[in-house]
Design brief:
16 strands, homodimer, 8-stranded parallel barrel, 574 residues, alpha/beta, 12% strand, 41% helix
Chain lengths: 574, 574
Amino acid sequence: MPDSSPSSIAPERPETAARGDAHPGEVGARSGDRPENGPDEERFETVYPASRKLYLEGSDGVRVPVREVTLSGGEPPLRLYDTSGPQGRDPRLGLPRTRERWIRGRSDVEEVPREARVPGEQRARVPEAIRRDRVLRGTGTPTQLAYARRGIVTPEMEFAAIREGMEPELVREEIARGRAILPSNINHPELEPMLIGRRFKVKINANIGNSRVASSIDEEVAKLRRAVLWGADTVMDLSTGPDIHATREWILRNSPVPVGTVPIYQAIEKVGGDPADLTWEVYRDTLIEHAEQGVDYVTVHAAVLREHVKATDRRIGGIVSRGGSIMAHWSVVHGEENFLYTHFDELCEILARYDVAFSLGDGLRPGAIADANDHPQFAELKTQGELVEVAWDHDVQVMCEGPGHVPLHKIAENMDKQLEWCHEAPFYTLGPLTTDIAPGYDHMTSAIGAAMIGWLGTAMLCYVTPKEHLGLPDREDVKQGVMAYKIAAHAADLAKGHPKAQEWDDALSKARFEFRWEDQFHLALDPVTAQAYHDETLSGAGALSAKFCSMCGPSFCSLRITQDLREEKRRREA
Amino acid sequence: MPDSSPSSIAPERPETAARGDAHPGEVGARSGDRPENGPDEERFETVYPASRKLYLEGSDGVRVPVREVTLSGGEPPLRLYDTSGPQGRDPRLGLPRTRERWIRGRSDVEEVPREARVPGEQRARVPEAIRRDRVLRGTGTPTQLAYARRGIVTPEMEFAAIREGMEPELVREEIARGRAILPSNINHPELEPMLIGRRFKVKINANIGNSRVASSIDEEVAKLRRAVLWGADTVMDLSTGPDIHATREWILRNSPVPVGTVPIYQAIEKVGGDPADLTWEVYRDTLIEHAEQGVDYVTVHAAVLREHVKATDRRIGGIVSRGGSIMAHWSVVHGEENFLYTHFDELCEILARYDVAFSLGDGLRPGAIADANDHPQFAELKTQGELVEVAWDHDVQVMCEGPGHVPLHKIAENMDKQLEWCHEAPFYTLGPLTTDIAPGYDHMTSAIGAAMIGWLGTAMLCYVTPKEHLGLPDREDVKQGVMAYKIAAHAADLAKGHPKAQEWDDALSKARFEFRWEDQFHLALDPVTAQAYHDETLSGAGALSAKFCSMCGPSFCSLRITQDLREEKRRREA
């Protein structure tokens, strides 16, 4: 079993080694060659000045990235959790396939031709270097849950444990117990493993993906890179437009974080857009297509039952989940129970072969304050709990999705019921939004609810951007959404008492008190913005050594006065 | 006693009547005449399309503004609390002096020459129309607390009651009990009365004011107008630079909301900037100057005692309150107790004569997560509680200021202790900021804490702008700060169950579900931004009747699918 502490630390090296395939030249491609690298593309070095990426080395090739912020004034550097992934890669070549050796080394997988049919025109949109005709599939049950239950600490678990600053054995136990998941499809070797569970850091998800109305593949890859650079722990590709397969392939081959999808979005495209025409077979084939591509978790709206749907008629907001409304429509039209519920065992069998995790959709989540915590919502949550146990019976990892729009005083009930009814499977919530009145600011209305529910035990927070309810988010919206949720997640980590959370706050506050302005900027969640705001009214070398800023001016800086006070006291005591 | 329900409703009329002085021409001045009206100045009509201002009429000239949003589809209009004040006024002439008749009618005030000396150059910067050599002063104790205790419902109380949709008698009781304040200096006749108390809507304060480094009078008046247009319930003028008296005069004469100040900032300017040179006499004269100008509440750091200051030495963040650090410095240098504490009775006597409310400063509030809920902070809070009782003995209205930087799990303790130790006097908190790591985004780090503490009972939330810790906020920062805090306050109102809170959310969600896009925009907290975000990717008349937006595109709109579903069910049942 691997040692619990990293054996050594190495600075970042060019990522040329350990690729499963042998395409040369993935380092050093000029930015002009990269379709998504416009002049405004942000890079690690520009976004995080005074930071460098280090790798903490574990056993068996485990190399865990951290971002180290260099400080002045004799202060030790601060190491922060890093999601940005290998830098400077040409997206047409994808990221290094670090996990490939671990996966193949476990001898419970085989390489097989693709089972799902991929239309030629979609295939053609995938660059040759990342196109694959053969994929991995389990001969047994190659899931992290199965390994954990057998007492095995995988390299993925060790990686994630080092990242969290925790013991690998604790990670294994939490996964075995179902309280944490480590989403890691065997066809996603580019992944840097991470954990979703309430003993660990609260994670955030950024939704990307195009719609029929807006965006392109390039734009989506740029959103992915931007999202992980700013700190997204997972991304969901919610594309609904054309190029859905090719977009996903580009995203997966370039994603260092788990990728989630909602297969029903593609299934409905395949049948021409009418929910009534959906069939179990089309859905199953789509799910296999996602699994073969390397999707790490899938939202499945299997808990939207006919009897729950009936009860939504008196809602102000109706059904606001896309998948939920589709399945509701299907079952009403056909007069049958939701086929995702009736075929749930088969779903488990498919996911088990690739280690795709379930994210049990909350198709009936409230989309308005008036509908929060109503009967259909909680009835579905109870059904999610049933399905959690079925997934566990198949050694499939599972988490539960949660609301939605919920006022502050009704948030705790959501968490309490989820823990009880869903047997402590990780909770993954959208916000919740604590009011409906502020379209254009829903990253804020929801960050309030997200911080609160994160503190109470939610393992991952699905971000909301300022464009929610209004349109498809662009790159800047993605950044604003990620920022709001990094704040919410960190506020929750502090409140939960995560052992590594407060050292960041303390380092920044110490820099602030000591007027180490540049350190304060470098330690900020968004260093460049912090410095730009400061420099708007006071800039230059003098401003960076000044014991004040333009907010209070030279006479009124409380920190300077406090320093003088301490000096005065020392003088008097001497 | 006035009737509890408004007797009639009148549309806005030109504000020419009822001014105490008789300067003509205050309506109709062209925008070129107004120093602060640049081309980007926002106006009621442009910021709130489809809204109009109405007045609910009470007794004795009470006319309470509301903003009424007109809706389509046969929906009734929605009436919202309005803080924007009379529109279209030339700031050199000030707002109408509506309260003047009520104040003089109570016969416990006299008009006297100014007691405080105003330097000629400051006086010269005040436009002639709003310059005053004589002011009002109480012959008795003209405070709302004194009236309430005597069983009198003043026009101010009636005004505020209509605004809240509550009974005037309830308002009187809450004021009499000290659980609410109605800040309303007898020299601020331009005021539209409002309440700060936990039975009522959670209020927000916007800080404005220049510093020695940045800004101008024009800019500060523009910030005031912008702040109240967006919904600030009070403003604090925290100016510390030159022109401090004239800036305040301009602000007061143009402010429909209560204005708070921190007199120590001006007192220290008067003695040349060194806290050691402060004297009780300089402070007292400054306080009288503010009271004569019409300041409605003053932050007084009277609870920063020497023994508490000692205990701050081990803090990471030191003392982060400007006033707190000044008083701490003074008492250490002089080896004496804080003169604001030792002269507290005299302070009460001054404030009682003008009905200025105390805002007991939290000079030792934590400025870093590491310092939250520490001994100095709570020791000061306990002393605030003592002083609340002293103020009440003098019939002076009082609220208590609170932190600061506090992680989520330590917020409730602040509220609990404040209620207990300060005898339920209203709590007025800065944020609190729930993490230190995000300079540039502290409107968000703090809106999270503000929503939470507002729910728990805080009566007013002091906003934080994105520039906090970095520089003086500009007009756009003021807007962003107000937006974040309107959201926090409304989220808190919903959670507290304020009877009028949820109707706003319901109206908006109903519009959303029914694809009344324009109604959705008009009902938004910030209509123009909501529409602009929507129109970025889909615009024109077609987009406004479309049953989708660019986020999901035409096939995937869950609301459209839900509508189809309801239609399908109706068809089947028919």
